[in-house]
Amino acid sequence: MRLPPNLAIQLGFFFGGLFCAIALHAQDTVTVSDCPGKLLPVQFEVDCSHVADSALKQQCPTFARNQACRVFFAYRDITGINLEQSCPVFKYEIYDENQWPHPKGEGGLAGHCGADILSDVALKIDSPIGTYDVHEILHVYQAELGAIPQAHILFGPSMAEARKRIGDNKGYWNAMTQMKQELARNKAALDKQPGVSDSACIAAEVYTENNIYVSNPAAVMAFYRKLELGRARDMNDRFRRFNRMYDLVSEGKAKPFLLNYCPAF
Ligand SMILES: [Zn+2]
User: Fold this and answer.
1) DSSP code of 217?
2) Which stretch of DSSP H or E encloses residue 29?
3) Which terminus of the chain, N or C, has fewer Cβ atoms within 10 Å?
4) What's the mean per-residue pLDDT of the chain?
5) Residue 140 CA, ligand 1 centroid: distance in Å
6) pTM for the model
7) Distance 155 CA to ligand 1 centre (A)
8) Under 8 Å between Cβ of 125 and 110
9) Pairing verdict, β 89-95 and 114-118
10) CA torsion angle for 100, 104, 105, 111 (degrees, to 10)?
11) What mean pLDDT comes out for the span 72-82?
């Protein structure tokens, strides 16, 4: 049972020089409906009623505020997507592992306009701005792209860029270091097993987007703006849309490489 809004406790949190209005409802739901100095087009609700540890639960307002006032706007700029057109409210349900309602093995599960996420994943990020999520929310943003070749396409550059923009510089540099190491490994794996296939094409696309981003971080915004939207389920159609986008962003450099691995261009 949720208390009616007039019984909700309106609390102002002064945090990092930012003033932000947050409502704490019954059952540990935190609602953020505005941000310092700017309109918040999507209301964020974070339900922490499935988190037992009180110290961990205290991270819920920080998480909610970071999602609403930092991560939401970072991805708005990166993707150019206005999420409010499909999602007026974004809901997070945070669960301890022993209450997780989905099969084990996933740290989170994005759905329509929201995500379920494990408390260990959502509430324990050590960063200068406190804890946050840049993964599950990106799935919700990417639902606007239509059919995609792979569930985590564009995730490397998008998440790294989001970390930088929200003020987690350490997280950003860790992501960049990891991406550079993966680039070398993935290139070696692709060179070792040449040939056209769906899996090789996906690996080549991920290699391409990471490679472009590492040399030109601004390209991440172009990825989203140059991509044609399309709902066709056909795998070759998805490859074509993404390959054409990589080629546009790289000014023709990506095509010869992608043609070695992709069944469609
Ligand atoms: Zn995912």
Assistant:
1) T
2) strand 29-32
3) N
4) 91
5) 10
6) 0.89
7) 9
8) no
9) parallel
10) -50
11) 98
